[in-house]
Structure formats: structure tokens, C-alpha cells
């Protein structure tokens, strides 16, 4: 039993006429009649009673008709679904991002993508770069925005650097810190420190060690939102990406110099398989979105 034979059978059942069914399906009447006979032979029973001037379904034809119609509907639905995915009318992107990127970069990027592809579902996981790398490797994410270099030897993860971002010192808006501060100036400041595994924690501790001191920690162990709230409350200062302060009216940024601190944001995915079409579309939209950046603190790579 072939799909085309079922299509011809349903056409004849609807029109009760072989010639009109042939016209409806775009084949010659002899070809359609032949395929109906082949179908009947394969089933071992007639499907139509061919009386002069009238075509009627046999009991076997009556039994087959609803099943054949359902098959045709299912195939049409499957073709439509595949076409919608192929043309990005539907789909899903499983993406991950670090908390700082969820706080700063991601909301506008997701808004832009959703406006372009409103029927594509977005599934976002917020985690540190190490966790996101593991989720990518295990196939639970399609794409991730994370910080490089990665602390992994997994050869299956491919990264594309997209943005270099300056790190700044966040303080309450009324603080008396200068507009610029050398890293050595962190020695006497109480710091609000991120939890273990945060790239920002590692960058801050390495910079302090390179300047010859161990920082004084007022509070430690927080995620991005908690760290920013602690700084707003006056518990201390924190080294953070510049973009996360854009919507924080109660915080101000002091530029870190001597040396300046920065980090590189990359888009990552598994290199062993092609990105799903929807994920590729998100990647393209994100890169376009990043072109709207380009300040002293953000450099497109």
C-alpha cells in the first residue's frame, strides 16, 4: 500500500468518478485506474463497485476510507510542520548564558530575536560558563553565551568570540570613589565577591594577586543579582561587567586601570554536529544585535 495509491483512492471516493478524480490529482485516468487496481490486488478485495454511470464503495472501501483520509491528513501536517521549521516559522532554541549576560546583554537580544521569529520557542538556562560547557557537551543546550577561555579539554565544543567587555568597579551611586582606580586601590576596599566557579571571581582574585595583595571580602558566595543588591545596600564594592550597570540607577561604575580588566564573551556550540536552523538564526540575530554596541567599554570582535 503506497501513499499515492491512497491519495487516488480518496479522490475517487470523494468524486465517485474516475475521470474527475484523475483531473483532481493531476494524473491520467488510465494511470489512476491502474493504481487503484494495484491497491485492490494488494488488499485482496475490491474497493469500488463499478456500475454503469455510478461508482460506489464496497464495505472494504468504506472501512478503508477513514484510515486513508487520516493518513493523508497526517502526512500533510508533517510536511507543513517540516516546512514551517525549515522556514523558521516554528522551532525551539535551547540556549544558555551566564548570569551577567542574562542581566545585561540577553534581554534585548532575545527581544530582537522574538520579533523576527515569534513562533520559535526560546528555552534559556542561566548558569556559569563551566556548567554551560558541560550542558553543551551532553546535548542539553544548542548554543551558549559564555566567557572564554573555557576550563575544559572537550574538543567537541566550538567557540566564536563575539565581544570584549571592560570590567568596572560597582559602588553605590553616592560613593566618593574617583572615576578611575588602579587595581592596587582595591586593597583597602571591602569587596562583595561572587561564588566559586564564577569567572568574575577568578578574574578579580588573579588581578589582586598580581598586584601583590589578597582582597578583603565583606560578603561572598552570591550570584549576579545578589551581588548587585549587596553593593546597592552599601555592603561593599564588586568587580562586574560594565553592561550590567546600565539599568541599575542606584549604582555607579569606576573604571579599573593599571591594568584595565576585561573579559571575552563567546558563542559556543557542539562542533560535532550542525547547529539546528533555529539556533543558527539566533546566532545570526545576536551578532547583528551586537553591532549596535560599541562603546569605550564594549568592543565587537
Under CATH, the homologous superfamily of the largest domain reads Periplasmic binding protein-like II
Number of domains: 3
β-strand number = 13
- The averaged pLDDT comes out at 87
Say what the CATH topology of the largest domain is: D-Maltodextrin-Binding Protein, domain 2
Question: Helical amount among residues, as a percent range?
Answer: 40-55%
Instruction: Give start-end ranges of low-pLDDT stretches.
Output: none
How much strand? 25-35%
Give the C-level CATH assignment of the largest domain: Alpha Beta
CATH architecture identity of the largest domain:
3-Layer(aba) Sandwich
Could you say which structural class the secondary elements and strand pairing correspond to? alpha/beta
Biggest sheet descriptor? 9 strands, mixed
Any idea what the radius of gyration is?
31 Å
Task: Please tell me what the overall shape is.
Answer: rod-shaped
Continuous helix count? 10
| End-to-end C-alpha gap | 57 Å
How would you spell out the order of helices and strands? Answer: HHHEEHEHHEHEEEEHEHEEEHE
Task: Please supply descriptive tags for the structure shown above.
two-stranded antiparallel sheet; Arc Repressor Mutant, subunit A; 301 residues; D-Maltodextrin-Binding Protein, domain 2; rod-shaped; 3 domains; alpha/beta; 41% helix; 9-stranded mixed sheet
Describe the structure.
The protein has helices at 3-15, 18-25, 29-43, 59-86, 99-103, 106-116, 129-137, 199-210, 224-232, 277-290, and strands at 48-51, 54-57, 91-97, 120-126, 143-148, 157-172, 180-182, 190-194, 216-222, 238-241, 251-257, 262-270, 298-300. The protein has 3 domains: 3-86, Arc Repressor Mutant, subunit A, CATH 1.10.10.10; 91-163 and 265-300, D-Maltodextrin-Binding Protein, domain 2 (3-Layer(aba) Sandwich), CATH 3.40.190; 165-262, D-Maltodextrin-Binding Protein, domain 2 (3-Layer(aba) Sandwich), CATH 3.40.190.290. The chain starts with a helix and ends with a strand. A hairpin with a 2-residue loop joins strand 1 (48-51) and strand 2. Helices cover 41% and strands 27% of the residues.
Amino acid at each position: 500500500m503506497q501513499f499515492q495509491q491512497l491519495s487516488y483512492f480518496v479522490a475517487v471516493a470523494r468524486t465517485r468518478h474516475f475521470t474527475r478524480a484523475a483531473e483532481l490529482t493531476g494524473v491520467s485516468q488510465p494511470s489512476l485506474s491502474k493504481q487503484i487496481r494495484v491497491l485492490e490486488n494488494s488488499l485482496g478485495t475490491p474497493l469500488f463497485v463499478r456500475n454503469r454511470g455510478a461508482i460506489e464503495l464496497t464495505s472494504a472501501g468504506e472501512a478503508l476510507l477513514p484510515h486513508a483520509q487520516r493518513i493523508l491528513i497526517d502526512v500533510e501536517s508533517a510536511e507543513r510542520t517540516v516546512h514551517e521549521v525549515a522556514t523558521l516559522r516554528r522551532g525551539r532554541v535551547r540556549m544558555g548564558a551566564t548570569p551577567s549576560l542574562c542581566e545585561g546583554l540577553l534581554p534585548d537580544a532575545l527581544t530582537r530575536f522574538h520579533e523576527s521569529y515569534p513562533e520559535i520557542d526560546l528555552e534559556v538556562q542561566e548558569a556559569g560558563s563551566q556548567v554551560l560547557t558541560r550542558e553543551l557537551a551532553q546535548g542539553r543546550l544548542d548554543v551558549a553565551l559564555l566567557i572564554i577561555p573555557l576550563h575544559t579539554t572537550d574538543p567537541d565544543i566550538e567557540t566564536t568570540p563575539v565581544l570584549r567587555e571592560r570590567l568596572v568597579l560597582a559602588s553605590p551611586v553616592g560613593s566618593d570613589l574617583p572615576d578611575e582606580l588602579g587595581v592596587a586601590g582595591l586593597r583597602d576596599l571591602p569587596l562583595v565577591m561572587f561564588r566559586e566557579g564564577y569567572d568574575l571571581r577568578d578574574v578579580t582574585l588573579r588581578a589582586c594577586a598580581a598586584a601583590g595583595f589578597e582582597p578583603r571580602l565583606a560578603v561572598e558566595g552570591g550570584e549576579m543579582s545578589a551581588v548587585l543588591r549587596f553593593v546597592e545596600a552599601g555592603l561593599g564594592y564588586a568587580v562586574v561587567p560594565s553592561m550590567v550597570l546600565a539599568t541599575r540607577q542606584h549604582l555607579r561604575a569606576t573604571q579599573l586601570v593599571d591594568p584595565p580588566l576585561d573579559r571575552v564573551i563567546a558563542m559556543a556550540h557542539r562542533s560535532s554536529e550542525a547547529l539546528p536552523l533555529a539556533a543558527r538564526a539566533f546566532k545570526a540575530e545576536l551578532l547583528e544585535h551586537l553591532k549596535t554596541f560599541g562603546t569605550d567599554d564594549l568592543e565587537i570582535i
